[in-house]
Amino acid sequence: MRAPFRLQFEQRTETPRRLGVLVPLISVLAALFAGALFLLATGHSVGDTYSNMLSDGFFSSTGITDTLGLSTVLICTGIAAAFAFQMNLYNIGGEGQLYVGMIGATWFGLFFGENLPSFIMIPLVLIGGALCGAAWIAIPAWVRARLGTSEIVTTLLLTYVAASLVNHFIYRSGSYFRAPNSMFPQGRQVPDSAMLSPIGDTKMYPTFFVIVLLSLALHWVVRRTEFGYRIQVISDSPRAARYAGISARRTTVQVMLISGGLAGLGGATLIVGSFQRLDPGIVTLGYGYAGIVIAALARNNMAAVVVSGILFAGLRSGGDKLQISTDTPIHIGVMLQGAILLFALGGEAFRRYKIRIVRTPAVVSEATA
Amino acid sequence: MNQNIWVLMTGDSVALATTLILAALGALFTERSGVLNLGVEGVLLTAAISSFIAADSSGSVWVGLIVGSLAGALLAGIHAILAVVLRANQIVSGLALVIFGTGLANYLGKPYEGKTISVKLTDMTFGPLTDIPLLGPILFEQDIITYVALAAAVLSSLYLFRTRPGLEVRATGDDPATVDAQGLMVSTIRIRYTLFGGLLMGLGGSWLMLAESAAWHQAATTNGVGWIALALVVFASWRPIRLVLGAVLFGFTLQLPYTLQAENITFIPQAFLQMVPYVATLISLIALSRPGSTNALGAPKSLGVPFVRDER
Amino acid sequence: MTSSTYEGAQGPHHASGAAPVALEAIGVVKRFPGVLANDDVNFDIRVGEVHTLLGENGAGKSTLASMLCGLYQPDAGRILRNGAPIQLSSPRAGLQHGIAMVHQHFRLVDRFTVAENVVLGSRGLSFKLNRAELNDAVAAVADTYGLPVDPTATVGDLSVGQRQRVEIVKALYQGAEILLLDEPTAVLVPAEVEKLFENVHAMTKTGKSVVFISHKLGEVARISDRVTVLRNGRVTGHVSSKGQADAKELARLMVGRDIDLAAQRASHPIGHEVLQIREVSLVANGVNVLSNISFNVHEGEMVGIAGVAGNGQRELADVIAGLLSPTSGTISIGGAMSTDRGPIASRELGLAYVPEDRLGVGLVPSMSILDNLLLTRDRNVVVDRASVRPEANRLIDEFEIKANGPEHLARKLSGGNAQKVLLARELSGGRTATKLLVVCSPTRGLDVGAIETVRRLLDDARSAGQAILLISEDLDEIMSLADRVLVIYRGAIVHETPGATASLEQVGAAMAGLSQAGGA
User: Fold this and answer.
1) Over the stretch B108-117, which tens digit does the pLDDT of each residue have?
2) Per the domain annotation, does C383 fall within a domain?
3) What share of chain C is helix, strand, coil (3-state, %, to 5)?
4) Containing domain of residue C282, as a range?
């Protein structure tokens, strides 16, 4: 039984630049369209849902600032994922590294915060969180470089361990991180010197600008420096890297540590920003996983992650507010994110290959014996 | 130490292992054909909620199991289209499936939050056999799906290594170019096994819901079991029989916190006990690594690599 | 050159005239993006005949063969089997008509046994596999044609020659009457080539037809009943004097002009010793990959290392380049020790290395020519591309590289141009001027124009005083270029002789492991 047509894939030697932007764009639209169909099928109003999402996400003054505020951590986890993914190192444990970053940042805040002024504390907390995130990825990085163990599963498993850690630090009575004198378990707030004030009466913090600059700086590093050159060689052609005397092993560890550190940094921005304490609710938010979707949509380009991150922050922010404004479950937001990624992946095929429909020739006539 | 509790615990481990075995077998078949489907966690959740809704509304456990399995196959079908037909990056596609599947499951499960299911899968009894000391309760007091899982593992082993289609799927995972040159359709084979893998995963997720949890608590229902299943395939070197052994071992670790709690051993903090399965998986993965390649021992050589026929 | 005569196929019709035509292509055309691979080609093969398709790389012979077996479909023209027109939509269809091709790159699953590979995909294979039965069946087919194989052996463990035999057994098992062999002798030593010819003879005696696809004039002349020559996609001539084909005539048809087959050998003054290898051995996984290798190379000298692929050439090149550390022995470049110091240290001492794989090892496919030039050079923390650009432009001109400037991506270069980029980069050196050039299989897969250019570049470099180590599986290449010829077999140097007086028989025998302890 043979189909009359078959798809023929021809690897493109030239990839038109416009497709690089067009494909993600169409994916978003396609996902929104599919989402609309789904909403209809499950009996929710498309118009209400989408218009509320969009205005709450982007097109209102509180909407856009809320979005930008949320995007701070999402861009962080996005560049964390993108930095590693570009070298085919699939760090999907950004979620866990974020948790550990939060734990570390909180600890630095609580331990030093009483005695040191703000202009030292803020950088200390941020860097401390980043270092802890890097520490959390250290083992997967090492075994990947040395033993070839798949970083996909190792980083993921550690995420679950990190979640247990967060729970342990909050629910264990007498824990350092736990707020004393409170009815039910919650995190202890860090001292004032470790906190930033929001910009005006928005939910945005100055860390937003720091993170955006960091993303652009990393973009420059990848394109223009020796380190970035090495990354490009190894990701395209590990054998060429060996030939050129480039140590893939060392670069692997370096890239993964930076990736973990960026995710930890994301956690730290939450401590100096909106959270101000170690909150066990963080494990339900999935910021780390969102980073992966953001990175994939931005095709692992550090600068594009900023745009992609803001877009996703808007979707989430708008989606979260749906709870209040309509009866659509907020999970539509998460579904849309997954759907956008799925469509983007499909769209990639069109970018990388020229796909033609080829008619298969008529059935072979039996040879005369 | 009360000997009976260990017997009971082993019995429970075998039970818990059921989901692991089914999900891992599903992943094993998919990967044997060369496709890496990381979306197991999402598939399990979607299947779980689907089976819940189906069983609850129909009043039949069997309807729940069937619907759940089909839901699993459907979700895996998305991955099949992306990975096989469109030659997308299989790792990112699998992750997208986890995210999408988790969101979908939570979305569908919203109305059922915290509800307990009205029907449940019960253990089968084999009468006097359960009185055999030690082995009795372990082997003969499980529900039917557990037996199905064990049987499936044995049949899978025979299928893969003793039949023609088994030869073909193994060849497809190692060297699709050769299979293609022999006139076999690589894409068809891969799609078929990805779907079948999803079916098995779906059955595992449904079982988890219908036999074990009985209540919908969002993502906590599966709690990382899908990822352990993926590691289990590596641990078993892609061989079904070894997979069963590994599943029981890991089932053991998943069961540990509850058993120790029952025995009133409380000096180990709960949180650390919960970490045990994941840390154990991590350590065994590392121990099985083969320096010089990112595919562990026994891995299909073309795993995760999209097949494009070299058409010049 | 050789004195053995070859008794061609004598089918049942030899006395009265030609045997019936088993397979025929009429007016066949095949286009690929940017190239007309086959232009109105006619070709036929008779029952019991050996017919060779001769042509240089890129002439279109593989394309034609692929259409004859069903791998490609012609854009125009017809294919006839036993006189009846057929449509070959896939290799499977080809097999249904009894046509099978054995490719240059074998299609075998390394992990499976010989028998499993032979039966994979065959029609009528039962659902349950009975291993014993299958092993016997495979052995039976193999024995019929004198192709000894062990059905239970794992293919991954077999040598190249043995694997080729498995491929042939596979084709025969699956019912092929017409076999197309794509460059079968490229991977064989002269002795194995003889064995192959014997097997082909056994096959044609029973009425099978064999199409040889080759670019090697010498062998073609001996084995073929007929030769069809292709150039640039068109048939330029047929020759059907069995065993007596004129090499010069064939060469002219292949290339379009007279080429001088005699080696050109000018004498070159040689200078100081540049490379010294002393008792280098390499043991990996318990196997002696390299055994006690010692030789040297001087300024202005080209030393050629001949051998069949897989006898340690890659490892030797890697060891010299500093990519691998030998288990014992020393390497010195320009008088300084380079053993165990890594590839960058070797380059600082003046080594340049053109590896076998152009794209993927020597060049990074997704990077531009400019970035690839930087690959083996020192780079600053902030990579300074601007300063390399003028040099890149100069090299592109000097080496006549067809590209749109330094930003041209490596993967878009043709094989010949990629090789030129590699040579340009390696010859021009980095911080240190190049003193020693190690080059591996430089002309593999290139068309004649590119081959000539590359050889000329190497020759010029030698004349300019460069020391060159040429490692190649192409014996003709080494014989025509090298001042001294060494033969490597199973990781050891088994023969050494000056290029001018080298005897093909001795070198060939050494390549097959049949030499006495090497003497010049």
Assistant:
1) 887 887 777 6
2) no
3) 35, 25, 40
4) 273-361+434-511
